[in-house]
Amino acid sequence: MTPRQECGAAVVEIEGITPPTRFTRLSDALAALWGSVKVLPLDRDQLRFVGFCLTNPNAVEAATEKLARDGAMVLTIYLSDGLHRLTIRPATPEATAQGHTAGNPGSST
Predict the structure, then answer these.
(1) pLDDT per residue over 13-47, tens digit each?
(2) Closest among 68, 30, 28 to 50, alpha carbons compared
(3) DSSP code for 40
(4) Half-sphere exposure of 43 (CA within 13 A, CB side)
(5) CB-based contacts of 37: which residues, under 8 Å, 6+ apart?
(6) Pairing of the two strands 100-101 and 82-90
């Protein structure tokens, strides 16, 4: 399989935990989402599964394909207060207006 270009800007959110946040690169969005998820009180199986989805060597390519095909990538986690959706979607002007924009270290955009 040949490497694909990542989709560009993306918005991530953990329902009920973090607001929608825009990143200029999908790779930064996945890394930030993992940074937020890995400190949550998840059981070992959930943590491993979400970690694999967000950090494996093909994570950016898989997410890019999912976003192109379905318009969003959604994972669900279970915490003591119930289910929470982890959502990744391509950034749009509307999504940016509704959420926060995160700085990307080393980025000139």
Answers:
(1) 999 999 999 999 999 999 999 999 999 999 999 99
(2) 30
(3) S
(4) 6
(5) 14, 47, 50, 51, 54, 77, 86
(6) unpaired
